[in-house]
Amino acid sequence: MRKLWLVFTQTATVCLAVLFVVSTLRPDLLSWNSRDNVVTIKESQSEAATRKTTSFSDAAKKAMPAVVNIFTTKDVKVPRHPFMDDPVFRYFFGDQFDAQTQKSTNLGSGVIVSGEGYILTNSHVVEAADDIEVALADGRRAQARVVGADPETDIAVLKIELPKLPSITFGQSDQASVGDVVLAIGNPFGVGQTVTLGIVSALGRNHLGINTFENFIQTDAAINPGNSGGALVDVNGNLIGINTAIYSNTPGGASLGIGFAIPVSTARQVMEQIVRTGSVTRGWIGVGVQDMTRELAESFKLQQVNGALISEVLRGSPADKAGIKPGDILIAVNGKPVADSASMLNLIAALQPGQQAALKVVRNRAETEVKVTVGTRPKQSRREK
User: Fold this and answer.
1) Given 109, 123, 150, 154, which residue is catalytic?
2) From the CB of residue 20, how many other CB atoms can be counted at a distance below 10 Å?
3) Of these residues, 173, 201, 228, 343, which one is catalytic?
4) What is the CATH number of the domain that holds 259?
5) Is residue 87 situated within a structural domain?
6) Which of 272, 240, 267, 279 is nearest to 378 (CA)?
């Protein structure tokens, strides 16, 4: 019995020694460690998948080739020196201080939207430019011409002549939601093509005094001087907006996280009209309006605060001929509700000149429908209402 016990204890000691050596030098040979390794590998693969889903490199790679840098120059007259009106001064110095011209440069961004060379950008980027040069992401450069511009939406269409041009894919800006991740691509401060990340902060921003027609996408993706006209894209690299303005109170106009982009639905409609006819035609009825407020609604003894109060009717305008009067409250255009003066302006502008439109107004607390033959909106300069 004693002999068997000694054999058992020696065998157990040897086994424990072997186990210690193996666990120290080759822990991967042990079954429970192998399971741990499998778990670790799976966790690593999961982490890699998580990193992949939080990277937007595919969206950037898809959109960046179609975003261009725009460089413009124009001749600016230097004011005449006031001493030039003095004949004695002119006698000694001649006309060297007369009014002269000098080159003024500007930079911005644009988006190639067609293989034919059409580029969307902001009207203010190319406004009054004498020379426009476009630099592509692949290093090519080309002179561009302005096909047309619409200052009221701040959209311009350029065209370049180059082979094998990349073009961006249009997205659905109408389906964008607050909180969606977006990328802003452009040429901030002229440092070169740059991608910034943010979210959609708000939709339908208006009453900002930037453009006549406003329906902005607000984003906190960094937009700086030079980004104007660049792309705002979704996580799939599809274009949903044209970056146009920022809110900033810093001297250099740096981003404070409040940027605005024109929805691609608006930009595309304007572009198609410009390409087809060279300009944009909008409906017009010839009225001045203001937003309804609770105080105004109470003064008119109305329960709801909606619609646009007609404050002025131009003599001889379509509205005047149809019998619209100051004090009427416009609440619908062809059955589409009017929320405020901005929505009224957009609804009227979308009408086809020459056609009849049904306007529903509140007059003396009673609803009535008025038929108006839509006119053509007069051309106006940027920021002019």
Assistant:
1) 154
2) 10
3) 228
4) 2.40.10.10
5) yes
6) 279
Q: Using CA of residue 327, residue 333, residue 334, residue 336, what is the dihedral sign?
A: negative
CA distance 279 to 209: 23
User: Which member of 109, 124, 234, 340 is catalytic?
Assistant: 124
Segments forming the whole domain that contains residue 180:
175-277
* Cβ atoms of residues 313 and 324 within 8 Å: yes
Note if 228 is an active site residue: yes
Which residues, including other chains, have CB under 8 Å from residue 64's CB and lie 6 or more apart?
137, 185, 193, 195
In this predicted structure, the answer to whether residue 2 has a pLDDT above a threshold of 80 is no
> Would you call 98 a catalytic residue per the annotation?
no
DSSP codes of every residue in 317-331: SHHHHHT--TT-EEE
Asked if 154 is an active-site residue, the reply is yes
Its pTM surpasses 0.70: yes
One domain for residues 128 and 210: no
Q: Is residue 31 part of a domain?
A: no
More confident residue, 116 or 93: 116
Per-residue pLDDT reduced to its tens digit, 236-273: 999 999 999 988 776 666 678 899 999 999 999 999 99
